[in-house]
Specification:
It is built from no helices and 6 strands. It has a domain at 24-65. It is mainly beta. Pfam families: eIF2A (PF08662). This is Eukaryotic translation initiation factor 3 subunit B. Residues 2-59 form the Translation initiation factor beta propellor-like domain.
Length: 65
């Protein structure tokens, strides 16, 4: 499971979005922070999911063979 939180000083973290059943083992943030790539790499290939964290939409999903 992958969860995104908002952290404000003096307050408890607030859950923004939780993705269940996501088999990803690597996360790569954009240097500017809005976009993240969720990646699953294994011996037989993998998958990449490109996510916009402003609204948590999946922009693209790629399967690597």
């Amino acid at each position: 499971c992958i969860s995104f939180y908002q952290v404000n000083t003096g307050q408890a973290p607030t859950l923004l979005k939780k993705f269940e059943n996501k088999p990803f083992n690597h996360l790569f943030w954009s240097p500017l922070g809005q976009f993240i790539v969720l990646a699953n790499f294994g011996l037989t290939g993998g998958a990449l999911e490109f996510l916009d964290t402003n609204d948590f939409t999946i922009m693209m999903f790629l399967t690597i063979i």
